[in-house]
Design brief:
The complex is a heterodimer of chains A (356) and B (202). Chain A is mainly α and 356 residues long. Chain A contains 12 helices and 2 strands. Chain A has 2 domains: 72 residues, no CATH class; 274 residues, no CATH class. The chains are: A mainly alpha (356), B alpha+beta (202).
Chain lengths: 356, 202
């Protein structure tokens, strides 16, 4: 992508900027707008309601109207707040949740940065969100914010361990930290996906399938906890803590937290689909190949990747409207007593298989 | 160890069961009524805004008497014979001009007690329930159909009629009194002349 842009514009810096901004404006912001609406509609229909219906046909323009409203709102900074930290916290969270998209390959043609430490970068950057949440909650100078921030920090730090262990398992299995390489290993048909034991045929594949399914469940749960969504939303916990760490934020700063949450949801879904479900690869081969239209392939790849990502986002929504919030001790129990032992066991077994 | 595995399995399984329920409900038609566009069907005897059909009102004040919060105020003037005979749709005579029929719907408690005693069934509950106002005065509904001029005229007519009637009565009374006086005089005369024969009979 970057080389292509450099050829077109003939300038490195311009190409960098376009390559960096293109996925953000072309893909993620429209997605966030749609996802907020989808969340409301899906949740409404799950509860036999209709959701927003007034703005546009069946309320399609509702989020747009909400964003317009939020832009117009007064930007209130509490008198007792630590002003510098208070202002910078939403930018930090927004930035770190969108920075994850830099290393995700949207198609074989379209990747922000094909660095060899992609997965490591993702874990590092998503750990950065904790700093933003703690800054925001501490700077608000509000009991509820602080409680929410502390809970969130404890939660994200502990759930990063099973995530990291499962990511490590996948790194051992695929032998690469680069998400593009991992995706390219899972080409052709869906039985080559990592959830079905990867591209290697043989006995190891059969042994790997249940392990991979377990690994997928563990990473899905722990990543769900990392993006602070129900049933792991004790950081926000609107029925206990008003709205947790962003209680004191209003207007556009609040919207940034909101968009960051939805961007995070998509990022997590895309990472999971890249690791386990073949990333941008089509499960049945490409229409472009069979028709001989080669420019169609990247578009199809983006379609499949989006489809997989949206499926997991939808799964997260279903989970959110199914399960009640976990208590703090239950949260820690799930992480330390269940997810970590299982993930360590998976790590050891997969390591043994890959050595053999 | 066994308990641990059972816990794990149950945790995952119950989540799946819950998700099945939620997913099923996506396809259940929603129960929402899009209110300002679509209005709910009211029950048969729903009690909402009062309406008075003034063509049928005979001004009997039974509704205002029945009202527990005194929100109906009625003033009437009697009709005079020259107004002609006015009849309601169910055949009752209208002997009164209703000069004022005010319902303060802000006071109304929607008990519907006023509708039951009405002999002509002209006061009734409608299906209208959207009648909020910015001024409280606007919630006082005047149903009386007569204009102020007409009311004055009716009042004048009635007073005139009554005066005439009183005059006639007075005249009648006078005439009667005169007649009575005459009669008594005659009787006296008669009595005087008949005194003796009466005594004779005794």
């Amino acid at each position: 992508m970057y080389e292509f842009l450099q050829n077109i514009t003939g300038n490195q810096i311009v190409a960098y900027f376009i390559a960096a901004a293109l996925p953000l404006f072309l893909f993620i912001l429209p997605y966030a707008l749609l996802a907020v609406l989808a969340e409301r509609k899906v949740s409404a229909h799950m509860q036999d309601r209709l959701g927003p219906m007034r703005v546009g046909y069946h309320g399609i323009l509702q989020t747009l109207a909400d964003i317009l409203k939020l832009i117009q709102k007064e930007d209130i900074i509490p008198a007792a707040a630590d002003k510098k930290l208070f202002i910078s916290a939403p930018y930090l969270i927004f930035m770190s949740s969108f920075a994850v998209f830099a290393v995700i390959p949207f198609s074989s043609f379209f990747i922000g940065s094909s660095i060899d430490i992609g997965l490591f970068y993702i874990i590092a950057i998503s750990g950065f969100v904790v700093a933003g949440i703690l800054m925001g909650s501490w700077a608000s100078n509000n009991k509820y914010s602080l409680l929410g921030g502390m809970r969130s920090a404890a939660q994200i730090v502990s759930y990063e361990i099973p995530t990291a262990i499962i990511v490590l398992t996948m790194v051992m299995l695929t032998g690469s930290l680069n998400l593009k390489t991992i995706t390219e290993q899972q080409t052709d048909f869906f039985w080559n996906w990592n959830i079905f034991g990867g591209a290697d045929a043989g006995i190891s594949k059969i042994v790997l399938i249940p392990l991979m399914i377990a690994a997928f469940i563990i990473i899905f749960i722990s990543m769900l906890a990392e993006v602070n969504r129900t049933p792991f939303d004790i950081a926000e916990a609107e029925s206990e803590l008003v709205s947790g760490f962003h209680t004191e934020y209003s207007g556009m700063r609040f919207a940034m937290f909101f968009l960051a949450e939805y961007a995070n949801m998509l990022a997590v879904s895309l990472i999971i689909s890249a690791l386990f479900f073949g990333g941008y690869n089509s499960p049945f081969g490409y229409l472009g190949n069979s028709l001989g239209v080669h420019w169609l392939i990247p578009i199809e790849q983006i379609f499949w990747f989006t489809l997989k990502g949206i499926t997991f986002v939808f799964l997260q929504m279903v989970l959110r409207w199914t399960l009640p919030r976990l208590r703090v001790d239950q949260l820690m129990t799930v992480c330390w007593k269940y997810l970590i032992p299982y993930s360590v066991a998976i790590l050891l077994i997969v390591g043994f298989i890959t050595v053999l | 160890m066994k308990q641990y595995l059972i816990n794990t399995w149950q945790g995952l399984w119950t989540v799946l069961v819950g998700m099945k329920v939620t997913l099923k409900h996506i396809f259940v038609p929603s129960v929402t009524i899009q209110y300002p566009d679509v209005k709910p069907v009211l029950p048969e005897r729903a009690r909402n805004r009062l309406y008075v059909n003034m063509d049928d009102c005979i001004g009997c004040m039974q509704c205002s008497t029945a009202c527990p919060v005194n929100c109906i105020e009625i003033e009437t003037v009697k009709a005079i014979p020259s107004d002609g005979e006015r009849i309601t749709s169910n055949g009752k005579k209208k002997a009164l001009w209703v000069t004022r029929f005010d319902i303060d719907i802000a006071k109304c408690c929607f008990c519907s007690l006023c509708t039951y005693p009405c002999p002509t069934e002209c006061i009734k509950m409608t299906n209208v329930y959207e009648f909020s106002e910015f001024e409280r005065e606007n919630l006082i509904y005047s149903f009386a159909s007569l204009t102020e001029k007409e009311i004055e005229e009716k009042q004048k007519n009635y007073n005139k009629f009554m005066e005439e009637k009183a005059a006639a009565k007075l005249a009648a009374a006078k005439a009667k009194a005169e007649a009575a006086a005459k009669k008594t005089e005659e009787e006296k005369a008669n009595n005087n002349s008949n005194d003796k024969p009466e005594d004779k009979t005794k």
